[in-house]
Target: Regulatory protein
Amino acid sequence: MRVIPVDTSSATLLVTKLPEVKVRDRQTGEVAVDPVTNDRLMVLELVFIAEGGSDMIKVTVPEKGIGDGLVMGTAVFLSGLVARPWESEFGGRTRHGIAYRADAVMAGAPAAVQG
Model:
């Protein structure tokens, strides 16, 4: 599976839906966990504003990576954001999209790099 690093350095990211537990199976209520660390996964929605446009994205983050101070409309930065294209077939219909995953989400803006 391809994993594409996402550069958010020139984007503005705002919280539009606070983090909540990610459900792996809606029928059973099984909670999604990271297969390597076994940490519970959370999902939040953000508006991604860049280059004169905006998109709504859902980002999965380990529970330990959720920073303090997140409220609706908060500007945030994401650590280790990657995009994973996906495709699945269900009931004879093919669906596809992009899943976003980050190591952490923090309120505010990242510190400027000195150089």
In short: The chain has one domain: 4-107. The CA atoms of residues 17 and 45 lie 5 Å apart. Strands lie at 4-5, 12-21, 23-25, 30-31, 41-50, 53-62, 75-79, 82-90, 93-101, 104-107. The radius of gyration is 15 Å.
